[in-house]
Amino acid sequence: MHVSQTSFVGNIRILQFLNNSTITRIINRFRECGSVSDRKRSERQAILTEAKLADVEKMLQRSLSKSLIRLSAQSGISYRSAQKAMKLHLRAYHVRCVKEMKDLGKEKRLVYCRWFRAFVGNHGTEEFDQVFFTDEVWFHLSGYVNSQNNRSWSSENPRVLHEWPSHYQKIGEWCAVSRRRIVGPISFETTVNSPVYQDIITQFIALLEVDEREGRLQQHGATCLTSNETMQFLCEIFGDRLISKGLWPPRSPDLSPADFLLWGYLKGIVSKIRIHWMTSRGTFRRRLTASVYRCSTG
Fold first, then answer.
1. Strand-by-strand arrangement of the 131-140 sheet
2. How far, CA to CA in Å, does 21 sit from each of 7, 18, 26, 28?
3. What sections of the chain are H helices per DSSP?
4. Peptide bond preceding 185: is omega within 30 degrees of 0, i.e. cis?
5. Residues contacting 267, CB < 8 A, separation 6+
6. C-alpha torsion sign, points 226, 232, 235, 237
7. What is the C-alpha to C-alpha distance for residues 174 and 188, in angstroms, rounded to an integer?
8. pLDDT beyond 50 at 276
9. What pLDDT shows up at residue 49?
């Protein structure tokens, strides 16, 4: 009896947190079915039928950048259903920002593509073992903190700060990519001008194997790479085996393997590196060189 009274008092204490409508609903449920348990829910009819999915696909084909909110309103389904419908067959891709391509640039791309096709027809794909596509990039060593994704849980504001130097530490890397392997990385720490670039090319030549020294070199059309002094230096080494300004089309990073693939892969690796050792240039270079080697050897 004492246990029953204690249980009843506990239940009464729970009741003080329930409002009148909830109590009334529980009483009515007990009168109807003799239990206060929730009724077994019936199976809901699927909203995303084949016909509805076909309608959603047609709407997206008319406007590929349509937002989920607008798609939901136009198709008559919920936001969650619209999100689920898109994930069944589609993936979201970010817009890439590239430099504007003028008509003259498009024509130069066609000229290069015709030359490239003729080159492959005359020499075969094996010749690309000795064709080096080059590019350079800057790596920032100070690390990166996304304040939107980093949280410190506390009952009071812990005032967590991330300090970075006034001048970001950075190191430049240059690589040459052929079908056979990747030569580099070759580091530089100042803005690339004619003397710096000539020093990079000198280091590059020293890293080549004997059969590669008669190969071709591709470079983009930056001023420091195509100045009279630099072009004279390059022509003495490569002669007519230089793919540069005049043949290489402007604003065409997608045609260079280093710019199109290699740097994105390496920066993806660097972004996973913990900040506490990023200030060590030696450690950074060892990790980067190891990553390039793994990429080169497969």
1. 182-188, 170-177, 131-140, 216-218, 242-243
2. 23, 8, 9, 11
3. 2-15, 20-33, 50-62, 68-75, 79-89, 103-123, 194-207, 223-226, 228-238, 257, 263-270, 281-297
4. yes
5. 137, 139
6. negative
7. 8
8. no
9. 77
The pLDDT tens digits of the residues spanning 201-225 come to: 999 999 888 888 888 888 888 888 8
Read off φ and ψ for residue 172, nearest 5 degrees.
-90, 145
Q: How many Å apart are CA 122 and CA 244, to the nearest integer?
A: 20
List the domain boundaries for the chain: 50-89, 103-146+165-297
* Cβ atoms of residues 200 and 188 within 8 Å: yes
The amino acid at residue 155 is S
Greatest alpha-carbon pair distance for the chain in Å reads 107
Looking at residue 77, the DSSP 8-state letter turns out to be S
Task: Please report the pLDDT score of residue 13 as a whole number.
Answer: 54
Predicted TM-score (pTM) of the model is 0.60
CA angle 219, 183, 141 (to 5 degrees): 85
| pLDDT above 50 (res 161) | yes
Architecture per CATH, 103-146+165-297:
2-Layer Sandwich (3.30)
Asked if 116 and 133 touch (Cβ cutoff 8 Å), the reply is no
pLDDT tens, 73-118?
A: 887 788 888 777 777 766 667 676 767 777 887 888 888 889 999 9
Nearest-angstrom CA–CA distance, 182 and 266: 13
